[in-house]
Design brief:
- With 140 residues, the chain is mostly helical.
- Helix content is 60%, strand content 0%.
Length: 140
């Protein structure tokens, strides 16, 4: 039977793979918990980028510092985390934070001013999300 190209790199699991798979599962569970991800079934493929961002090294260390300008503004950091966790839904973010949607907009603009990364633009959001992931492991 032909193997789908995206799955060609996978090899069959054996009993020798269980310790590694168990460790990886625990690491993924820890990551999902730290990131405050919404409850659900996650496979490694769903979290490969986040997993890589949590590995020690200079990249993770640098990404973790991108949020330093928000250290004295915990409401901005909370807004960013909540907004990303709610798939960028302003209304849901505002409801969960007990603020008006205009307040969410203002805070997102302020985050852009302080960090230099605009969370309403794809490239800025990518860096900010990556920085949040990295920071959960550099401050732990």
């Amino acid at each position: 039977e032909p193997v789908h190209p995206a799955r060609a790199h996978r090899r069959p699991r054996t009993f020798d793979d269980f310790p590694t798979a168990t460790d990886q599962t625990h690491q993924l569970l820890d990551m999902v918990t730290r990131l405050g991800s919404i409850p659900g079934l996650y496979r490694f493929d769903d979290l490969a980028l986040e997993y890589q961002l949590t590995r020690p090294g200079p990249g993770r260390d640098h990404l973790g510092t991108l949020l330093n300008p928000l250290d004295h503004h915990p409401e901005l950091l909370t807004t960013l985390q909540t907004h990303i966790a709610n798939n960028l839904n302003r209304q849901r973010t505002a409801r969960l934070l007990h603020v008006h949607t205009n307040t969410v907009d203002y805070r997102l603009k302020r985050i852009a001013q302080l960090t230099g990364f605009d969370p309403t633009q794809a490239s800025g959001l990518w860096y900010l999300r990556s920085a949040l992931v990295a920071r959960t492991y550099t401050t732990a």
